[in-house]
Specification:
Blueprint lengths: L7 H27 L1 H8 L3 H8 L1 H18 L4 H18 L6 H15 L2 H12 L2 H11 L2 H23 L2 E3 L2 E4 L1 H10 L3 H6 L22 H7 L1 H22 L1 H9 L3 H31 L5 H19 L6 H29 L5 H15 L4 H12 L5 H38 L4 H8 L1
Antiparallel strand pairs: 1-2
Length: 446
C-alpha cells in the first residue's frame, strides 16, 4: 500500500473523485423514484410492490453484504473493491432497462444494492487515512454532500430527462427496441458510470492509520469494540438511522405531489433537484462551520452537529407532507432538507473520530447496516402498505407525517441522552492513540 505523504491538492482530488462516485451511486439509486408511475402502470404493480422496489430490493444486500465487505476492505485494497462495485452496480442499472416483470426488476435492484454496498465503507476509510484528525471532519463533511448532490441530479437532470423521453414515446437504443420511456431512462443513467470506474485507477491506496494494533495490542473485533461502548455508539446509530429514515420521504415525493397537488414529473423533479443543490450544500456548510464552532468547547462536536440536524429536520419533515398548499409544502421541505443534510454530514464524521483505523471500514459497514434496517429497508414498504390499507392514494401525506413523528421524536431523545457516553468513548480512543488535545480531555470530563 502507498506509504508516501500526499500533497494537499492530491488529498482533495481523491475526496472530489470519491464524492463524484458517491453522487453517481445516489443518481442510479434515485432515478427509480421518477419513473415509478410509468413502471407501476407497465408492470401492473401496487404501492406495496413499489415500496419493495424503493426499499428492500435495494437495501437487502446492502444490509447482508455491507459488513463482510467492510471486513474485507480493512484487509485488502479499498480502491479495487470500489472499482469492482462501480462496474457491478452500473451493469445492474443498465440491465434494469430490460426488465419485463416485477420479479426481474426486484432482482436487478438487489444487485444494485450489492454493488453500492462498498461505497461508503471504502470511501470514508480512505478519506480518514488521507487526512489527520483535525482536518478529517471537514473532508468527510464535504464527501457526505454526495447523497444530496446525487439525489439532486437524479431529480433535476433525471426529471427533465424523463420529461424529454416521455415526449419521444417508444424508441430504440443502440439499434434494439422499441423500449418504453422508463427503460430508456435506466440505459441512459447506467452506462456513463463505467467512466468513473476508469477514473478510480488514478487513486493511490493510502496506508491504514490509527491502528490500535500498532501500539502493541492484538487486532480488535469491530463488533466487540462497538458493543463494549454501546451507549455512545447506540446514540450515534439511532440518530443517523432517524435521519436516513426521513430520507425515505423523498422516495415518495413524486407520488405525493402528483396525487395531492397535481404536479407533473418534470416540475417535481426540478423543484426537488434544486432543493438538493441548494439546501444540501447549505446544510453541509452549516455542518462544517458548526463542527469548528463546537470544537472550541465540546469534544463531541460532530455528535452535536448530528443532533442539530435532527432538531431542524424532524419537525419540518413531519409538516411538509400535510401542508394545505403545495407552496407551503415546498417551503417546509426546503428547511427539512437543510436539517437532513446537516445530520447527514455529522453522523459519519462522528463515527470516524470514535473508531480506530483497524476497524474503520467495518464500523462504517455496520453503521450503514443499522441505519438501512429502519430507513430504506422498512420505511418504503410500511408507507406503501399503509397507503394501500387506507384505500385512498391521497392519504400518502398523512402516512408520511405519522411515520416521521413515530421515528423522529424518540430518536432525538436518545441522542441527547447518549452524548456523554459518546464523549467518553471518544476520549478513551484518543487517549489510546496518544493524540488527544488536553482541552478535549478537560471538556469531556466536565
Amino acid at each position: 500500500m502507498e506509504q508516501r505523504t500526499h500533497s494537499i491538492a492530491y488529498q482533495w482530488y481523491v475526496v472530489g473523485l470519491l464524492l463524484l462516485v458517491f453522487i453517481l451511486s445516489y443518481f442510479d439509486r434515485y432515478i427509480l423514484t421518477l419513473i415509478i408511475e410509468p413502471i407501476k402502470h407497465s408492470l401492473h404493480l401496487n404501492d406495496f410492490q413499489v415500496g419493495l422496489l424503493l426499499g428492500p430490493a435495494f437495501s437487502l444486500f446492502n444490509v447482508l453484504m455491507g459488513i463482510p465487505l467492510g471486513w474485507y476492505a480493512d484487509r485488502a485494497s479499498r480502491k479495487w473493491i470500489l472499482i469492482a462495485g462501480i462496474v457491478f452496480w452500473c451493469a445492474m442499472t443498465t440491465a434494469s432497462g430490460f426488465a419485463t416483470s416485477f420479479a426481474l426488476l426486484l432482482l436487478l435492484r438487489l444487485g444494485l444494492g450489492l454493488g453500492e454496498a462498498v461505497v461508503s465503507p471504502c470511501s470514508v476509510s480512505m478519506i480518514s487515512d488521507y487526512f489527520d484528525r483535525p482536518r478529517r471532519g471537514r473532508a468527510i463533511s464535504v464527501y457526505m454532500a454526495g447523497p444530496y448532490l446525487g439525489a439532486g441530479l437524479a431529480f433535476l437532470v433525471g426529471g427533465n430527462l424523463v420529461g424529454w423521453l416521455t415526449t419521444m414515446g417508444h424508441t430504440h437504443f443502440l439499434g434494439v427496441g422499441p423500449f418504453e420511456m422508463w427503460q430508456m431512462a435506466f440505459f441512459l443513467v447506467g452506462i456513463p458510470g463505467f467512466v468513473f470506474a476508469g477514473l478510480m485507477l488514478t487513486v493511490r491506496e493510502p496506508a491504514h492509520s490509527e491502528r490500535i494494533s500498532d501500539t502493541g495490542q492484538p487486532r480488535i473485533s469491530a463488533f466487540r469494540y462497538i458493543l463494549a461502548r454501546w451507549r455512545g455508539f447506540g446514540a450515534l446509530f439511532i440518530g443517523a438511522t432517524c435521519n436516513f429514515a426521513m430520507s425515505t420521504l423523498t422516495f415518495w415525493n413524486v407520488p405525493l405531489f402528483q396525487r395531492v397537488w397535481g404536479w407533473d414529473i418534470a416540475t417535481i423533479g426540478t423543484v426537488t433537484g434544486l432543493f438538493y443543490f441548494t439546501a444540501g450544500p447549505i446544510g453541509t456548510a452549516i455542518a462544517v462551520w458548526m463542527t469548528r464552532h463546537f470544537l472550541k468547547r465540546h469534544a463531541d462536536a460532530a455528535m452535536r452537529v448530528l443532533l442539530l440536524g435532527l432538531v431542524i429536520g424532524v419537525p419540518m419533515s413531519a409538516l411538509y407532507p400535510v401542508m394545505p398548499t403545495a407552496q407551503l409544502a415546498v417551503a417546509a421541505m426546503f428547511v427539512a432538507f437543510i436539517g437532513k443534510s446537516i445530520a447527514t454530514a455529522g453522523g459519519p464524521s462522528a463515527l470516524s473520530l470514535v473508531t480506530p483505523g483497524d476497524i474503520r471500514s467495518q464500523s462504517v459497514a455496520i453503521f450503514n447496516t443499522v441505519i438501512t434496517l429502519v430507513g430504506p429497508l422498512l420505511g418504503p414498504p410500511i408507507i406503501g402498505w399503509a397507503t394501500d390499507y387506507s384505500g385512498d392514494p391521497k392519504s400518502i401525506g398523512v402516512v408520511l407525517s405519522i411515520f416521521v413523528v413515530c421515528v423522529g421524536i424518540p430518536s432525538i431523545l436518545f441522542v441527547i441522552l447518549g452524548l456523554k457516553h459518546y464523549r467518553r468513548a471518544l476520549v478513551e480512543l484518543e487517549a489510546t492513540l496518544d493524540v488527544l488535545d488536553p482541552l478535549a480531555v478537560t471538556l469531556a470530563k466536565a
